[in-house]
Design a protein that fits this description.
The protein is an all-alpha fold and 199 residues long. The chain has a domain at 3-68. The chain has helices at 7-33, 43-60, 69-72, 103-132, 138-198. Helix 1 (7-33) packs antiparallel against helix 2.
Length: 199
């Protein structure tokens, strides 16, 4: 690993950039407030000098690579390398040979993946069919059912009232029968008295 890609250099570079930015911000605050934090020193001037030097250094330094894919895949860092077919596993750029892949195992893995994808597709199809079901009339049906139950409760209450009325009617008929029996007795007595008078 070169010096430019070392962790120590990255830390120092970030530290200097942060310090320069902080000094520039303090200098800008000085200008806004029309004051000086350190008498005789213009912080914005020094901060801008440090930042200019750091940006010049960043422009001259080689670019930093975050990932080293060529260690995992030999030949990627060589533009002219040709990766050969998957079953041979050799690279033409002089990189070490990669072990050959077994075509049957790859086919088995791919067929297993294809089966899983097909089952996922059928599951998604079922979900789509469920999504396309029209539930727009459901609320109207629920409202109608609620109205039906309300009407049913009212009818039951009316039936209860009718039963009570029928019971009262029966009681009144029984009282009327009793009164008629009494009247018959009185009428019979009157008839007997009249028959006695005629004799």
């Amino acid at each position: 690993m070169s010096f430019w890609h070392s962790n120590w250099f990255m830390y120092v570079k970030n530290l200097l950039i942060g310090i320069g930015a902080a000094i520039v911000l303090l200098g800008a605050l000085e200008k806004i407030e029309h004051t000086q934090f350190i008498p005789g020193v213009s912080l914005i001037w020094w901060g801008l000098i440090i930042e200019a030097c750091m940006f010049l250094a960043l422009g001259l330094l080689p670019p930093h690579k975050e990932y080293y894919w060529e260690k995992l895949y030999p030949g990627l860092d060589n533009y002219s390398s040709q990766v050969s077919a998957i079953d041979t596993g050799s690279l033409s750029s002089g990189a070490p040979d990669v072990p050959a892949l077994d075509g049957d195992k790859v086919d088995q893995k791919l067929s297993g993946m294809l089966t899983e994808l097909q089952s996922m597709s059928s599951s998604l199809g079922s979900l789509k069919a469920l999504q396309e079901v029209d539930f727009s009339g459901t609320s109207e049906q629920i409202k109608k059912m609620g109205d039906f139950y309300t009407n049913l409760n009212e009818a039951m209450a009316n039936i209860n009232d009718s039963i009570e009325d029928t019971q009262r009617y029966k009681e009144q008929l029984a009282a009327l029968n009793g009164n008629l029996g009494s009247l018959n007795g009185v009428y019979g007595g009157i008839l007997n008295a009249m028959s006695n008078i005629r004799q």
